[in-house]
Design goal:
With 260 residues, the protein is α/β, with parallel strands linked by helices. It has a single domain, classed as 3-Layer(aba) Sandwich (Rossmann fold). 37% of the residues lie in helices and 16% in strands. It contains ten helices and seven strands. Helix 7 links the parallel strand 5 and strand 6. The longest helix has 19 residues. The radius of gyration is 18 Å and the shape is globular.
Length: 260
């Protein structure tokens, strides 16, 4: 058995204390990466005992198995509404939702819109993999034009089914939204940028600046019918041109935070 020798070795990787276990998501799924980034931010801010997560319905429903924080389950699409109630009753807590695109951008579109409109002081982590993951790979509001799914086997036809929704750009138009960003989990550089955005979103809540959301472009190799590597390449080549990365909205006070 090999033991750690502090005289000759340096620890460069440890599982965050807030992260409970290795994920059981499909191989190549980037939910696990998102979980780790959130857990690292919670650890670094020292807020584990004061954090409440709200899981939505979808693959995101498993989030409460992996975080050593208080966690509740919301009905499909209602995570933002439940988070609003928790934050108003317990304003000293850090409240975040963890939602997929089928949940947030479809059945939950009203809840997320009005939470942002009211400027609710919550943080939203929005996983966009352009498909319904848990229920069999159906077309989602974020499915790209021409993308094949279980319910669009010939590819999404925008004349029949409309265009994919850019939720971040839509919410950024609302006065109550202080920070809205889109990042990707397809490579190391962008994963680091994603963590910075998540930290900024939690800092916005810490300073009572209102609604914050980080959209994370993610892979779903199983329902895309691809290998993990092919899925990563497909995200970079197809999703990023449509869902452009960057800060969609940053209020001046948020810009002064200078999160690194």
């Amino acid at each position: 058995m090999t033991t750690y020798n502090p005289d000759v070795e340096e620890i460069v990787y440890q599982r965050p204390k807030t992260l409970l276990a290795t994920s059981t998501y499909c191989p190549g799924c980037t939910h696990g990466i998102a979980h780790r980034l959130i857990a690292e931010v919670i650890d670094e801010m020292g807020i584990r005992e004061k954090t409440v997560g709200v899981a939505s319905v979808g693959c995101s429903v498993f989030a409460y198995n992996y975080f050593d924080t208080d966690f509740v389950q919301a009905a499909h699409g209602r995570a933002a509404a439940m988070a609003t109630g928790i934050k108003r009753v317990l304003p000293d807590r850090f409240v975040f939702t963890y939602q997929g695109d089928g949940d947030l951008a479809s059945i939950g579109s009203a809840e997320i819109t009005h939470a942002a409109l009211r400027g609710e002081n919550i943080t939203v982590i929005f996983i966009n993999n352009a498909i319904y993951g848990m229920t069999g790979g159906q077309m989602a509001p974020t499915t790209l034009p021409g993308q094949k799914t279980a319910t669009s086997p010939n590819g999404r036809d925008v004349e029949l089914q409309g265009y994919p929704i850019r939720a971040s750009e839509m919410l950024a138009t609302l006065e109550g939204a202080s920070y809205v960003a889109r990042r990707s989990l397809h490579d190391f550089k962008n994963i680091r940028k994603a963590k910075q955005a998540i930290r900024t979103a939690f800092e916005v809540q810490k300073r009572n600046m209102g609604f914050s959301m980080v959209e994370l472009l993610s892979t779903c190799p199983t329902n895309w019918g691809m290998t993990p590597l092919a899925a990563t390449n497909w995200l970079e080549e197809n999703m990023i041109p449509y869902y452009q990365l960057g800060d969609i909205k940053v209020n001046p006070a948020v810009a002064d935070l200078k999160i690194k």
